[in-house]
Design a protein that fits this description.
heterodimer, A: 342 residues, alpha+beta, Uridine Diphospho-n-acetylenolpyruvylglucosamine Reductase, domain 2, Enolase-like, domain 1, 4-stranded antiparallel β-sheet, 12 strands, 27% helix, globular, B: alpha+beta, Ubiquitin-like (UB roll), DNA polymerase, domain 1, 2 domains, 5 strands, 38% helix, 12% strand
Chain lengths: 342, 201
């Protein structure tokens, strides 16, 4: 691992102030020379691999007090970004009122990692693309812009079929982000240029021609909280994850779904897909296919077909289209069959 | 298990033997190679105190040192094991403030002001094993034993978290600890034996 300066921040302002001297403020936060350290489960791993090379690391774990609260308000849920994955997953009220959030977190990683990883860092975890993680491959447009993409013609079984470009097909690896996507969460940020709130849907950027730019965060911007509205579909929501092994594995295909039903007619459907896309993927075509219709085997299947209509498979990952459709179909029918407390 | 007390151990024996065979090669290389130049931007080691198994340990560490390396290489507590060193195997599992974490993905500097418990801190001071340690012996819950310290730390946490109520529950909440000897069925049995004993104790 390369040498770095280590600092422990005592509050948001002192953490953010360390970025004041940073020149290149126009780059994506994940590429900045200074990095925040919370749980460390992505950053330290990638520093050991020489994929991330910060010269300064700001430990923000002392901000747990300020930014780690889970609050229920009349209009919804506020999740402090320093809350650990396990705290949110084990929260009884979240399990009952926002099941898709608790389930997405419980099915992710291992018990140890869920105790460590803060949910703010969780949504920023980097892709598991082998060619990104293994620096012996020269061609990675994420690591080295313009160097090409070894995955396009490489072993791409785990790669994305949605949101891909001719520069990058790396899969977004997380689960929790899909739950936030489906529930239309907002992200509270604090940074060198002040506070702002953005829709979660605008946090991640599709690779297009610049796969190295992964988020809309500027260097020094700190995720302080996620806000989730108490929408009618939140209680009838779930997360379904399909993977190569039963536990402690990334998704091959996942679906976060939330339904607002009038008997079996869909007032509103919210759908996000994981394991199959380059970013947390909102499936608006599938939502539109369901809205106003009765939900059954036929309409659920039709929605799944719509979700993957624009999928672009490579040599080894075409199976993800059928797997993704079946995952979504099953998730929708399970959500429709849920007994929802009133 | 001694708490880093020097004396004869397999580890010291191996380290000494390796050093004696390497010394000739090192001397030879040292005579030819120029001394390593000082870093342009030298970084002072961090002086920090880690509270490990109830004892304060003062250590001087490079900021890059993980908690796992601090425990093994600096505090002399080699019970916690380095398997993958990337958070994929669980062999390095320790408790921080009573919660199980991976010491290989934690910087030692971040562990200041927290209570660290390792496998060495589990037994009572008179040597009586923790019920989980005894249960692993009773059920033959290991073969080579390399993953065992991590398995036991994780198993203790699994019970304390309330996630040891059924076989599927135990398997799910122990999935972060791999065992390449595949002693899994016996590990599940050991946890089922220790769980009620831990509640009594």
């Amino acid at each position: 691992m390369r040498p770095f300066e280590f600092e422990r921040a005592s509050d948001n302002q002192s953490a953010i102030a360390t970025f004041n001297d940073l020149r290149s403020a126009d780059i994506d936060a994940v590429n900045a020379q200074i990095q925040y350290l919370a749980g460390g489960t992505t950053l330290i791993d990638l520093m050991k691999l020489d994929v991330m090379k910060p010269t300064k690391v700001i430990d923000i774990n002392a901000l747990q007090q300020a930014n780690g609260n889970i609050e229920f308000k009349n209009n919804g849920l506020r999740l402090g970004a320093m809350a650990r994955m396990s705290q949110v997953a084990d929260h009884a009220d979240i399990q009952q009122n926002y099941p898709v959030i608790a389930q997405a977190l419980r099915l992710a990683a291992s018990a140890q990692i869920r105790n460590m990883a803060a949910i703010g860092g969780n949504v920023l975890q980097r892709t598991r693309c082998t060619y990104f993680r293994d620096t012996s491959y020269a061609n990675c447009n994420k690591r080295a812009p313009g160097s090409g993409c070894a995955a396009l013609e490489g072993v791409n079984r785990s790669h994305a079929v949605l949101g891909v470009s001719d520069q990058c097909i790396a899969t977004y690896p997380g689960d929790f982000a899909q739950a936030l996507m489906a529930l239309d969460a907002q992200v509270e940020l604090d940074g060198p240029r002040g506070k702002r709130t953005i829709p979660f849907a605008s946090l991640h950027k599709k690779p297009d021609q610049t796969p190295n730019i992964e988020t809309s965060l500027t260097p020094g911007e700190l995720i302080t909280a996620f806000n989730v509205a108490a929408a009618p579909y939140a209680k009838r929501s779930l997360f379904l994850k399909v993977r190569d092994r039963e536990s402690y594995e990334f998704a091959l295909a996942s679906a976060a779904v939330a339904l607002d039903l009038d008997n079996s007619n869909v007032r509103q459907a919210r759908i996000a897909l994981g394991g199959v896309a380059t970013v947390p993927w909102r499936a608006k075509e599938a939502e539109a296919a369901l809205a106003g219709n009765k939900i059954d085997d036929v309409t659920a299947k039709r929605a799944a077909d719509a979700a993957f209509a624009d999928a672009k498979p490579r040599e080894h990952n075409a199976f993800k289209i059928e797997l993704g459709k079946r995952t979504l179909t099953r998730a929708l029918l399970q959500a429709a069959a849920m007994e929802v407390p009133t | 298990m001694t708490d880093g007390t020097p004396g004869f151990s397999r580890r010291n024996f191996l380290a000494t033997s390796a050093a004696s065979t390497m010394s000739v090669a090192l001397l030879d290389r040292g005579a030819r190679a120029a001394p390593t130049p000082a870093q342009a931007n030298p970084r002072e080691p961090l002086k920090l105190t880690l509270k490990i198994n109830g004892r304060d340990r003062e250590l001087s560490l490079d900021p890059r040192t993980t908690l796992l390396d601090a425990l093994r290489e600096h505090a002399g507590l080699t019970g916690s094991k380095k398997g993958c060193d990337h958070g994929q195997c669980g062999a390095c599992t320790v408790m921080m403030d009573g919660r199980r974490i991976l010491s290989c993905l934690t910087f030692a500097a971040s562990a200041q002001d927290h209570d660290i418990t390792t496998i060495e801190g589990l037994a009572q001071t008179d040597g009586t094993l923790h019920p989980m340690q005894q249960a692993f012996i009773d059920h033959d819950a290991f073969q080579c034993g390399y993953c065992t310290p991590g398995q036991i730390m994780s198993a203790v946490a699994c019970v304390k978290e309330g996630h040891a109520n059924s076989d599927p529950d135990i398997r799910e909440y122990m999935s972060g600890n791999l065992c390449r000897c595949a002693a899994y069925p016996n590990i599940v049995d050991a946890i089922k034996q220790a769980a009620p004993q831990m509640k009594e104790g």
